[in-house]
Amino acid sequence: MDLFLFYFFWEVMLIPMYFLIGIWGHGRRLYASLKFFLFTQAGGLLMLLSILGLYFVHGAYTGVYTFSYAALLQTPVEQGVARWLMLGFMAAFLVKLPAFPFHTWLPDAHTEAPTAGSVILAGLLLKTGAYGILRFVLPLFPEACHAFAEVFMLMGAIGILYGGQLAYAQTDFKRLVAYTSVSHMGFVLVGAFAFNELAYQGVVMQMITHGISTGALFMIAGVLYERLHTRELEKMGGLWAALPGLGTVTMVFVMASLGLPGLGNFIAEFLILAGSWQASPWITVLAAIGLVVATVYSLRIMQKVFSGYRCASSG
Fold first, then answer.
1. Does a cis peptide bond (omega within 30 degrees of 0) precede residue 98?
2. Quick one: pLDDT band at residue 312, thresholds 50, 70, 90?
3. I want to staple 20 with a disulfide (CB 3.0 to 4.6 A). Which of 104, 117, 165, 179 is the partner?
4. What's phi and psi for 67, nearest 5 deg?
């Protein structure tokens, strides 16, 4: 409830994650941890400038200088200033979400992080970006958000399609799952700026279900790496016969990731699309195409890892 404390702990989150990747990560761990740190630190500093701007604007109007969330909600801000302040907050949250085109740190961080680091990234850190949008950006700057709503919704729709396309192109299991996060978090951005209750319920649901399903896929990738000592999809195949239990569990979470009706991700994405249709039908159509892309990359995981036969090169 205090914006300065929020910023302080927002930055403190970086420190353990940096060491998790940098010390216990894989091959290019130093590159990945530095990239993660610099991207999120840059966004965080822009948010700090916006918090200070709001602090001084509130003080100039009321004579009371405070970082209190409840007090700052009542700050009368000129629209020109409000838009700049809103963009400062959004910079931090779009990087952390991550939204296209600020997503490039995520695949490297996920790929090089240890399994536990990937689970924390997918299940917790990405959700703080969505939380920030719902808790700070929308209530503090409602008019500015309405002005930029279609831009952010379009960014979300592009992220859904682009993330899905890149996920399909990957040969590294963890990198593939990392790009699915970019795609799924695009739905959060679309729903957050649809400005209706259905979409907001979908956004919260998506935050929960994505954390569970993607976290589980990273755990599965970690289990396979421990046994096979590779994450390359081309070196896997035919594992269902040897690992039927793991194959069944993977199938459940792959189906959740693609949004199979009856599972949580479907409910979340359906609510977001139903809500965003009221705000922008054409962006909703683009986002809905992402469901088809999700089906393709999700089924590719099952086909490459558990079906067929091992490649001759892997013995």
1. yes
2. very low
3. 117
4. -105, 10
